[in-house]
Amino acid sequence: MTRWKLVPVGGDAWGEALERVPHDTYHLPGYARLDAALWHGEAVAFVYEDTRGCFLLPLVLRTIPGSARLDATAPYGYGGPVSSSQDPAFWTDAVAALAKTMREQNVVCLRARIHPLLECPAFQLDEHSALVEHGLTVSIDLHQPDVDIVAQFRQNHRREIRRSRGAGSHVLVDEWSYLGAFVDAYYETLDRLGADADHYFPGRYFDQLRELLGSHCHLMVVVRDSEFLGGGIILEAGGIVQYHLGATRNGARREQPTKLLFDDTWRWAKARGNRDFHLGGGLDAESGSTLFHFKGGFSKRRHTVRSLRLVVDPIAYRLLSRGPRQWSTEALTGFFPAYRRKELVGSDSVADRGGS
Asked: 137-303: which CATH architecture?
C-alpha cells in the first residue's frame, strides 16, 4: 500500500517516520517549528510510505512576497529528504508524490539541502527539477581510533591545541550561564566575516533553540580563568553531532579557541556513542575559502553538498521571477528561487530569507 501526506508539527506520523529513517537534529519537529517561526512560515513534514520504505522531508511553507502563492524550503541547515530505502525508483516515486502534493498546496517551488552525511541515491528528476552541487563539507569519522583521528589534524592545529591547554584554556559543556557571552561573540564573528543577513538570528533564537530541542542542543564554551574566549552550539541526534553555530570573541582571535573546541567536541561526541562529528563547510567551500581550509585541517573526510530544487508550477515561477518564456535549466542552477533575490523582494530583513 502506498500513501503520502503532509504532517503538522504535532502529528504522530512525524515521530513515527523518524523512528524508521536515518536523521539528525535538523529533521526534528522542534527544529522545524523554530525555523518556521523565524521565517513567518508553517512547519510541516512530507511523509511517503510503501512496502519499500519510508521517506521524510521537513518543510517550511511560506507566502511569496507580493503573491497569494506559497513556496517551500527545508529548515535551515541540512534538513533535506531522508529515507529508509536507497532504491532510486523509490526516491523517484516519492519525489513525484512530493511535487503533486506541493501543487495541491498552491506551492510554486521547493528547495531542500540534501544532508551530506546521509545517503541519497541518483533518482530520476523531470526537466523542472535538479540536484545542484554547492561544494564540500568536512566531518570526522568517530569510529576511528583516537590516534588516527588526531593524526589527520594539521600540524599547526595540534600545536596550538597543546598551547591552549598549557595556558589554562579548557572547554565547558552546557554551562548555559555563558549563553549571553556566546551570542555577543556570535554577532562579532558575523561582522568580521561579512556574513549575509540570513545568519543574524535574533537574540530569542538561541533561547528557543535550547527550549525546543532540549537534550539535542548543547553549548560548548572555551574559557580561561572563567573568561569566555569562544564557543559553539552543538546539535546531537541520530548518531550525528553538528557544529551548528560558532563564535570567537574579538579579543580572543589570537587564541583560536575553536581549535580546542573541536578537539574536545569530537572526544565528547565519541564518548557518547555518536558516529560522526560534522564540522560543516565554509562561506565559499568550492573556491577554498579560509573557513573551509581551517575546518579541513581537522579531517581528510569530505562530503558533497547538494540541494534538491523542484519547480512544480513553471508558469507561475517564470512570472514571479520575471524570467524568459522558454524554460531553461539555468533557472534551477543559479539563485533559487529567483524571485526571492533581494532586489526583487526589496528587503534585507532576515525574515525575507532568500534562496541559494
From this structure: 3-Layer(aba) Sandwich (3.40)
Q: pLDDT tens track of the chain, all 356 residues?
A: 789 899 999 889 999 999 999 999 999 999 999 999 998 999 999 999 999 999 999 999 999 988 999 999 999 999 999 999 999 999 999 999 999 999 999 999 999 999 999 989 999 999 999 999 988 999 999 999 999 999 999 999 999 999 999 999 999 999 999 999 999 999 999 998 888 787 899 999 999 999 999 999 999 999 999 999 999 999 999 999 999 999 999 988 888 999 999 999 999 999 999 999 999 987 543 444 688 899 999 999 999 999 999 999 999 999 999 877 777 777 898 889 999 886 444 433 333 344 55
Judged on CB neighbours under 10 Å (0-12, 13-18, 19+), 244 is buried
Q: Which fold has domain 3-135+306-352?
A: Aminopeptidase (3.40.630)
CA dist list (Å): 266 to 139, 145, 242, 259, 305: 10, 12, 10, 11, 22
pTM for this predicted structure: 0.92
Residues pairing with 42 in the sheet:
61
Helices 179-193 and 203-213: crossing angle, nearest 10°?
Answer: 120
Task: CATH 3.40.630.30 in the chain: give the residue spans.
Answer: 3-135+306-352, 137-303
Dihedral sign, Cα of residue 30, residue 211, residue 138, residue 73: positive
For residue 21, what is its C-alpha cell? 529513517
Alpha-helical regions (H) of the chain: 12-18, 29-38, 88-104, 146-151, 155-166, 179-193, 203-213, 257-271, 290-296, 314-321, 330-333, 342-345
CA atoms of 194 and 250, how far apart (whole Å): 14
What span, in angstroms and rounded, lies between the C-alpha atoms of 4 and 52? Answer: 13
